[in-house]
From TrEMBL:
Origin species: Pseudomonas fluorescens
Gene3D superfamilies linked to this entry: Carbon-nitrogen hydrolase
Keyword annotations of the record: Hydrolase
Higher taxonomy: Bacteria, Pseudomonadati, Pseudomonadota, Gammaproteobacteria, Pseudomonadales
GO BP: putrescine biosynthetic process from arginine
Name used for this protein in its record: Carbon-nitrogen hydrolase family protein
PANTHER family the UniProt entry points to: BETA-UREIDOPROPIONASE, NITRILASE C965.09-RELATED
Domain CN hydrolase: 4-239
InterPro entries noted in UniProt: Aliph_Amidase/BUP, C-N_Hydrolase, C-N_Hydrolase_sf
One of the record's GO molecular function terms: N-carbamoylputrescine amidase activity
Superkingdom of the organism of origin: Bacteria
Spans traversing the lipid bilayer: none
Pfam families the UniProt entry points to: CN_hydrolase
Length: 253
């Protein structure tokens, strides 16, 4: 089993402020690089916040030049970053909940949320998912929030050979116990590590629980944030043994 370092970016999002959130994401990528992170996963709609009423106006083509600072930094620092953004694909008017993969090699991948929460269909259309990623020798399958509430989604990831299931989410305190039990169960059932990147605070009128987590392939908890706030939740596997740490991320004032 190869060495692997991954992290959940538990980030606070500025409501509808794409330039401000890009600057905040850059700081997370820099902090991740300082920790040797190879894959950094942000929460659902991290670049805008969970602002459904503004999503159509904020939606971009994944190739939009506005993301160039993030893409360039990811390539420069050799960190693959998965960021959340409302998107429109070329030739379509539908707004999707996207997880954009900014590759350490300069590439761009697109994952779109397949399963919507009740009410999201008023703004968003269901997406089609996306391909697995390769981080070194590790196969990674992505999920966005409600995707993981469907057991078939994790089953399909395991069927594709995923050793890591990485979910960007928005989970409140009320749903936290049940949702983390599902994710931990997938780790045990499918023998794949599971990463959950939750928002660091209030977004779109929802108070996130924070407490982002990473579980090992046997379902053991490697590391978890203790609460909310801007934090990196980092896990490193070396010779099959996982170790974790939580790192505060200071933002410019």
């Amino acid at each position: 089993m190869s060495t692997l370092t991954i992290a959940a970016a538990q980030s606070l999002s500025l409501a509808g402020d794409l330039p401000g959130n890009i600057a905040r994401h850059c700081r997370f990528i820099e902090a991740a690089a300082e920790q040797g992170v190879e894959l950094l996963v942000f929460p659902e709609l991290s670049l805008t916040g969970y602002e459904g009423q503004d999503a159509a106006a904020l939606a971009i083509d994944p190739q939009d030049a506005v993301l160039r600072p993030l893409r360039d930094l990811a390539r420069e620092l050799k960190v693959t970053a998965v960021v959340g953004m409302p998107i429109r694909l070329e030739g379509s008017v539908s707004v999707l909940i996207g997880a954009l993969v900014l590759g350490a090699d300069g590439s761009l991948g697109v994952y779109s949320k397949q399963h919507l929460h009740t009410g999201e269909e008023l703004v968003f259309a269901p997406g089609s998912g996306g391909p697995t990623l390769n981080i070194g020798e590790e196969v990674v399958a992505l999920a966005v929030c409600a995707d993981f509430s469907h057991s078939s989604h994790a089953l399909a990831a395991a069927g594709q050979g995923a050793g890591l299931y990485a979910a960007g989410v928005l989970i409140s305190e009320k749903g936290y116990a049940a949702d983390t039990a599902i994710l931990q169960g997938y780790a045990r059932q499918h023998s794949m590590a599971v990463l959950m990147a939750n928002h660091g605070g209030l977004t779109g009128g929802w108070q996130s629980a924070g407490r982002s987590c990473i579980w090992s392939e046997d379902g053991s908890l490697i590391v978890a944030a203790l609460g909310t706030g801007d934090l990196l939740v980092v896990a490193r596997r070396n010779e099959g043994v996982w170790q974790g740490r939580v790192v505060p991320v200071a933002q410019a004032q």
